[in-house]
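Bumping with the actual sequence this time:
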Amino acid sequence: MSGKTLNFKRSQGGQAAVFVMLFMAILLVATLAIFKSGKLTSNKMELQNAADAAAYSMSVVEARDLNFAAYMNRAIVANEVAIGQLVGLASWAYHFRSFADYLDSYNQLFLSPVTLGASNAFVTPITSAWRTAGTTAQNIMKTIANIGTTVIHNINKIYGFAEFGYHTVSIIFAVGVLDDVIDQNGPPGTKISDFGIMSLIAHIATYGVLPNLPGDQFATAYQSSTRTPVDEVGGEDDGYARLAALIRDSRDPFTMGRGWELRPPGFPIDRTGDDAFDFTIIDVAIARVGVTIEFYFDISLERKGASELRIVLPNRGNATAANYNWSSADTTGLFLDIFLGFDVWGQLCDPIFGSGCTSRGTIIGGELDFGDSTVSLKGRFAGINFTIIPEMPFPTSAPFASGFAEAGKNSPNNLGTQHMLLASLGGDIETDHYGEAANNLLAWTSPGPGVPTPIGVAPSAQIYETLLGSRVNKSYSGLPYYVDTTGNESFLGVGAPNLLIGLVQDEPDYDSTTTYAEPSGRFGLTENLADQELAVLAKSELYFSRPTDSLAAHFHRGDGQAEYGSAFNPYWQARLIETDYADRLLALLVQQKEDFINTGQSFNLLFGSLLDLLP
């Protein structure tokens, strides 16, 4: 062996560089992959934020639209009640003046014949002065009512057109806001997907802007010119039935039921129930026979009246919102209320064993009920009840004053008069309407001056409508336009009150944001996005929420009841909600264009194989 020494350290130099170079390549690829996945996630988050912001912003615009409609509808309700008040004041003025006519009538029919004309000396000056004062009040009130109802009715028309126009413009503005929010918050190239366009059209259609489309609408505008079949007026499908009901329920005490009662001291005389006259006629060991007599008598001077928003329908064809009109009636009369009942009763007793007497049994009895503009006579024999005279309309009051006023054009074929006549007979208008004014039967239906009849010559509420020109505003054309919710919900989350927004970013747009040179060949990294685009889905909701916490007591309902959403209370808000399976399934089918055919065939084969294994 020679004296040369091997240098092993020098022979190993540079071997680690190979491993470092290989590791650096792997590290570079891993770093690039992490960067690309981070960029993909960042883009996805930016796209999702844009979708959330767009959905929420559009729902906020719609919430403001419904709240604006609520303020307008509240103003319309308040103004309609004011119209009812003005019509009521005109009716009161006619009622005030008519007292002179009734006093003249009683003087001519009773006082003057009995006093041989002496009563004319003091009755005539009173009626003359009263008629002058009443005519002055009538003219003043009618003028005020004419001007007031005309102005208020036109203001309501403006309110109706304002909320209808705002409702329409809100959708256009909401679409504009949607586009601006997407441009300002989304990554480059962000656009609404095919599914987003479809859901947006469905939402706009169900929000009530596009009429005559299939399906239910969440909100809609009710047009006063829309014709409704007469048989459907006032029903669930009549859009004005709800507005009319709210107006009627919002009336103030003067409009809802004005009046007073005056009774002589000691009235009413009530000897019914425990206070009835009861005494025994026969009392022997084995039996008892007695009589029970009930008696009620009341006399009172009563003034009754109210204003009503009612529907005067044509004889045939269709009706519109113009068929709703305000009318008011007032009557004053001397009311009698008499009830007389008796029962002859008997009992069997047991003197031997001392078990007492049986309960009373009616042998014969009957009752006469005279009051509330009706009379009836009933009988009883051996425990069997039978009717001699059924309850039927009958004058139970002497009229002293009456008045009527109406806003609107003359009813076709005097249907308004016919309806009022039927009210006293239990017809189309119930007698509890108009503050029970129709219960004063003669003041309600008796003919007026110039109509020959033995009943009398004082004008009635009905005649004030037909003969004395009591219409205070012939230009009143019924209820105005208004916007309201329908209560219908969307199907599968597509349509109002929900809003689905689908956004996509095409892969070329995504790649255009890359500022570095991507590797190619074996080191190339591709995203393999579904349908060559990045897609997200966002969902928002319109919801109604009236504050109920202790810090918002001024918002609480006085009756403590829960309240459903409508366009009559401004408590609409917007919020983002989670998408459900149906939303994501529709988005995958339409937005991502996923192929579920092969998947379905695989399931069919699987289930088919399982079925073959069954015995």
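The tokens above came from a reply further down the thread. The chain has a mean pLDDT of 77.
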